[in-house]
Design a protein that fits this description.
Structural class: alpha+beta
GO cellular component, one term: cytoplasm
Protein name: N-acetyltransferase
Strand content: 25-35%
Number of helices: 6
Oligomer: single chain
GO molecular function: protein N-terminal-serine acetyltransferase activity; protein-N-terminal-alanine acetyltransferase activity
InterPro entries: Acyl_CoA_acyltransferase, GNAT_dom, Ribosomal_N-acetyltransferase
CATH topology of one domain: Aminopeptidase
CATH class of one domain: Alpha Beta
Radius of gyration: 17 Å
Pfam family, one: Acetyltransf_3
């Protein structure tokens, strides 16, 4: 699935690649494929791994909300507050989504990651590889100081991925989800932890034209491109 780079929205030209994966901001055609993966299901309906139950509803509603949400991240983007929502492709096929969310990044140099995979693509190590990709973008490409994430305490797969990438516990928060109290485990990764746990080769392409959208001047934090 090819997309043309956009002069006015250079994020469409951003590519992050690993041995198996490509992550990129989806154009409409790719977004339709991503919505279809969401519609097919991302977890057992009896469970709810997310703090906001966006997966409740019919497959049609799930696909449409995914489509609208990703479009909204583009429409509401500003250098002071942004959500980078990336489609994840494995062998050219859309399998899930990887996000990085932040506010005032130019000052804090911190962000939060979130992701999901279609049920058919889970248990294959893709979650670890896509997390490694976005962490490489954050630390190597955007000069991050630290990254955070969170998972329900019973979401063992997500917590295992975070630990494998070097995150450390950062406290817990009780949330109301589906009318029940759920405990969210926060986790934090600093630059030293990331460097000590890097195992996946990652390359980033097309970052330079995007730097100002991320709130960073082009001449800051030189980017080396591979790792």
């Amino acid at each position: 699935m090819e997309t043309r780079d956009s002069h006015y929205w250079p994020l469409y030209g951003l590519r992050i690649t690993t041995p198996r994966l490509e992550l990129r901001v989806p154009d409409v055609a790719l977004l339709d494929a991503l919505a279809a993966v969401a519609a097919d299901g991302v977890h057992d309906p009896a469970e709810m791994p997310f703090s906001f139950p966006w997966t409740d509803g019919t497959p049609e509603e799930r696909g449409r909300s995914t489509f609208q949400h990703v479009l909204r991240t583009v429409a509401e983007w500003s250098p002071e507050k942004w959500t980078l929502s990336l489609a994840v492709l494995c062998d050219g096929r859309v399998v899930g989504r990887q996000d990085m969310v932040t506010s005032d990044y130019a000052v804090t140099r911190e962000g939060e990651t979130g992701s999901w995979l279609g049920m058919a693509h889970q248990g294959k190590g893709i979650g670890t590889e896509m997390r490694a990709a976005v962490l490489h973008l954050a630390f190597e490409g955007l000069g991050a100081r630290a990254m955070t994430t969170g998972a329900m305490t019973d979401n063992r797969r997500s917590i295992a991925v975070s630990r494998k990438c070097g995150y450390r516990p950062d406290g817990e928060t009780v949330l109301a989800v589906r009318g029940e109290a759920r405990t969210l485990r926060r986790m934090r990764l600093d630059r030293a932890g990331w460097e000590a746990h890097r195992t996946v080769p990652v390359e980033v392409h097309g970052l330079e034209p995007c730097r100002e959208l991320f709130g960073l001047p082009r001449e800051s934090a030189p980017f080396r491109g591979t790792g």
